[in-house]
Structure formats: C-alpha cells, structure tokens
Amino acid sequence: AEARAAYAAARPRSAAQHERAREVLPGGNTRSVLIYGPFPTAMTRGQDCRLWDLDGHAYLDLCGEYTAGLFGHSEPRIHRVLHATLEEGINLAAVGQGEERLARLLCGRFPSLAQVRFTNSGTEANLMALAAARAFTGRGTTMVMRGGYHGGVLTFPASGTNAATLPLPFVHAAYNDSDEAARLARAHAGDLAAVVVEPMLGSGGCIPAQPGFLAALRALADETGAVLIFDEVMTSRMSGGGMQARLGITPDMTTLGKYVGGGMSFGAFGGRADIMAQFDTTLPHAGTFNNNVLTMAAGGVAMGEIFTPEAAEALFQRGEALRARLNEIGRQAGVPLGFTGLGSMMTAHFRQPLPDRPYAASPAEEALRELFFFDMLAAGIYLARRGMVALSLPVGEPEMDRFVAAVGEFAESRAALL
Ligand code: PLP
C-alpha cells in the first residue's frame, strides 16, 4: 500500500490523464495489458532504450513494447526508411515491392515458411492461420494450451476461462504435458484441424516449452493429420529463424508479429506451400493495411539490415547471461525471487522452484509482483506490469548492470516480505 501511494503521489499528471481518458475509453486506454491500479503511467517520449513520462520521470525501458520494441525508439536506419517511404505517398492501393522483399526475407529465415501473408497484428495472423488449417483439413477442432495467449480473442488462461475467447471448438491441453496432449489428440483425431502452441509461453510467464513436448506435438500432428502451428509472435527473436530453427522442430505453419515490422503494426502467417496455396484460389484474405508501405519498408530494413541472424544470436546470449545474473541474486539472498525465460525475454516469479508450467498466482504472489513493479519504477526502470522484461537492441551492459543492481536492492530491502 505504501509503494502504491508513493507511486500515485509522484504521478499527478498520469492520474489526471487516466481520469480524463476513462470518460471516452473503457479502462482508460485501448490495451487491457496497460490497465493496472491505481492508474497506468502515461509516457510522452522515447529515445533509444529510454522513456519519459507525463510527470517528467525518466526510465530505462526494459518493457521493450512487449517485444515489439526490439529496435528501441530511435533506430536511425528505421527512421530514415520511414521518412523516405512517407515522401513517396502513404498506401497506394496496389501491390508494392516492399512486401515481396519482406516476404522473401522471412521465407529465407524461418524453416517452416515456404510462403507468407501479412496482417496488421499477431492476433489476426493467428486467426488467419486457424482459418487456413481448418479449410485445409476440412476439420473444426483446435488444440490450444492452458496459459497460452494468441491475441485478445484467443486467450486461454492457466485456469478458468476467458469469456471473450472466440466460440470455436477448442480442446484445452496442459502446457509441457506430452501425455495429456497425446490423449486429447487421439480422442479428437477425426476432427483435429490444428494444434497451436507458443514455443515459450510469453504472456503466460516466459515459460519455455520443453523440446520433448514440442517434438511430441510434431509427432501427434503427423499422426492425426492436424496442422501444427507455432505461434512465434514473441519467440521469433530467439534466433535468425526463431525457436523452430533453434530447436530443429519445423511446424506446418508459423505466425509472426511484434518487432518484425520494424516497430510498425505487424503480423504474418505462413507455412507449407500446399496449405498457403489455398489463398491463391479459394480462401479470402483481404485487409486494407496488410501491405501498408510503412510496415513493409520498415520491416525490410529491420530484418534485412539490422536484426540479422548474427544479431539475433548475440541478443539471445546477452539475455541468457542477464537472466543468470538475476537468478544468482535470489539464490544468494535465499529468497523466492527468480526469472524464467529464454534469451532476451524473462519474467520475474516469486516462488521456488521456478515454474515450468503456467500457474494461477496466489494473492501473496500478486502482491509481490505489484511491489516489484512499483519498486522498479521508483528505481527508474520500466518493465511490463506482470514482471516481464523484453530486451531491446539498444540495451547495453551499463543498462543491464543497472537492472541487476535494482533487483539486488529489491531482494535486500524487501527480504522480509519475500
Ligand atoms: N501471440 C502471442 C504469442 C503474443 O504474445 C501476442 C501479443 O502479445 C499475440 C499473439 C497477439 O499479437 P498482437 O498483439 O499483435 O495482436
């Protein structure tokens, strides 16, 4: 309560902004993930990996726009191509060269992508991939994972249900439980169109899939004739070709989003040529902004020149090293504070051992999560309210040192509560 009060007292302008916004925006904004009490911090400006809020505080940005902000806020090559593209006119109601360039880059990098189509968000990409799988197989049911997140209408909580989830026939399986997946896949084999899985649960707490679990899903899809879809909207950053390349497990379809459009609105879905061929003929997929020139141009530079496979590998290793340092803090202090994740994505958990499955946090864990968030803000570090960190390319050693120091200070000053 004290940390909450201090947070609110330091942000009168954010508070007032929230009050005004609530009159015309339910919850005060258009993204559920940014609704938290007592009110969210309103940001006004960003530069490289720094942010400034409405009340004048400066932050190190470790939220990284929930992985979409991989390039930071002022990557000069992205700014240059966006300005140049604007000069040529906004959206020309026609095919352009930018979309072929970006499509070729992605198909060259992700093992499962023979062909790809663009959308404006990861949510849309997943919806289109599901549509493609259902049409291709002539079946209706989709296996999803509890704790999985594939977009607002494709949210599958660790426990309970989400009233906003689309009313498609979904079979809910437990993440990282190959036996249950096998049982469910076989029980629904005759109508199983798709199995959709994140190679690491992102919003579900940065819980990596065990490689054996993904291999089992691959085998089950082969056995039942279902289409295996990897949602790599968040995990595509884990190597030049995403987690599928890292693990050597190739799905039938892949969905992408976030940073791949260079920071512009982005989504993509693609996969095997025989599945994607449906869009040549029978399956409709229009969408005014699917090939919008700003995203296509920024994505081409982002993936072609900046986030090369070498850059992806280097970022992965930096993140692994950071997570090891952070986990050392909890171990040394003997407190239940640790980080799960892979590479440049990690989430704080307040339990030991660290989870390898999604879980519903206890009220005590929720309180610690909130305290951690407020303490980090007080230390000038902005991360996702749920305790997720997504490193961006401008985050260097000094910034990581600063975060490690802040987490160390948290473990020490809050030891009695942990
Ligand atoms: N899939 C995953 C794994 C995600 O993490 C997200 C967004 O966080 C989405 C899909 C939805 O993407 P978007 O927010 O662009 O609709």
From TrEMBL:
<keyword id="KW-0032">Aminotransferase</keyword>
<dbReference type="Pfam" id="PF00202">
    <property type="entry name" value="Aminotran_3"/>
</dbReference>
<dbReference type="InterPro" id="IPR015422">
    <property type="entry name" value="PyrdxlP-dep_Trfase_small"/>
</dbReference>
<dbReference type="InterPro" id="IPR005814">
    <property type="entry name" value="Aminotrans_3"/>
</dbReference>
<protein>
    <submittedName>
        <fullName>Aminotransferase class III-fold pyridoxal phosphate-dependent enzyme</fullName>
    </submittedName>
</protein>
<dbReference type="InterPro" id="IPR015421">
    <property type="entry name" value="PyrdxlP-dep_Trfase_major"/>
</dbReference>
<keyword id="KW-0808">Transferase</keyword>
<dbReference type="GO" id="GO:0008483">
    <property type="term" value="F:transaminase activity"/>
</dbReference>
<comment type="similarity">
    <text>Belongs to the class-III pyridoxal-phosphate-dependent aminotransferase family.</text>
</comment>
<dbReference type="InterPro" id="IPR015424">
    <property type="entry name" value="PyrdxlP-dep_Trfase"/>
</dbReference>
<keyword id="KW-0663">Pyridoxal phosphate</keyword>
<dbReference type="GO" id="GO:0030170">
    <property type="term" value="F:pyridoxal phosphate binding"/>
</dbReference>
